[in-house]
Design goal:
By secondary structure, the chain is of the alpha/beta class. It has three helices and eight strands; from the N terminus they run αβββββαββαβ.
Length: 196
């Protein structure tokens, strides 16, 4: 193989890489707005499921927990505030647990929804079970504590998945509700807050 052959192969490879790069850029430029719109629609549906009686769920701001960016919303019906929804993250056994929490005007939990996680199948993934999520209804900040064993006052841990249970309850939900209380009720900083 001569130097001329090596140069020819190199030029051909560069041309192929450039064409491939342009194709990828074109596909990304066209797909990116669609992905954004799909994510926006999925978020709207998730908010409506959490606060079905609300006419609107307007974004109030953003905050940060575990270096993850999250949003919080005000829910209104007929122009009156009926509650708030906050996205939060809890540090689980094998992942960060992306959680949405709906609270009423008194900051009592109405409902939670787990948006994403990578907890252990058959154990930690039980955080998605309705029997676990239903325990949060009506709980105020001081009752967001995991108990091993029977409890009606607090949150009962999932057997074999105490870390995941605590990540949702004492990290994601409790920190999210505490942030809302500080920001909305007490007029704290409504921009980005850091929680760890």
């Amino acid at each position: 193989m001569t130097g001329k052959d090596i140069l020819k192969i190199t030029i051909n490879l560069v041309i192929i890489y450039l064409i491939g790069g342009f194709i990828l850029a074109f596909v990304f430029a066209n797909a990116s707005p669609k992905i954004y719109r799909n994510n926006e629609e999925a978020e709207k549906k998730a908010l409506k499921l959490l606060m079905p009686e609300a006419d609107t769920n307007d974004k109030l701001g953003e905050w940060s927990i575990h270096d993850k960016h999250a949003k919080y919303f005000i829910s209104k019906k007929g122009g009156d505030t009926i509650g708030y929804i906050i996205q939060s993250f809890g540090k689980g056994y094998s992942s960060y647990i992306n959680t949405f929490i709906a609270v009423d005007k008194d900051f009592k939990v109405l409902k939670i929804n787990i948006l994403g996680h990578q907890e252990t199948p058959g154990l930690g993934d039980e955080i998605e079970a309705e029997s676990f999520k239903d325990q949060f209804k009506g709980k105020s900040l001081e009752h967001l504590k995991v108990i091993k064993g029977d409890t009606k006052e607090n949150i009962q841990a999932i057997s074999g998945a105490t870390i995941s249970s605590r990540a949702v309850t004492e990290d994601a939900v409790k920190n999210g509700v505490a942030f809302l209380i500080k920001t909305v009720r007490e007029g704290g900083n409504s921009d980005v807050q850091q929680q760890h």
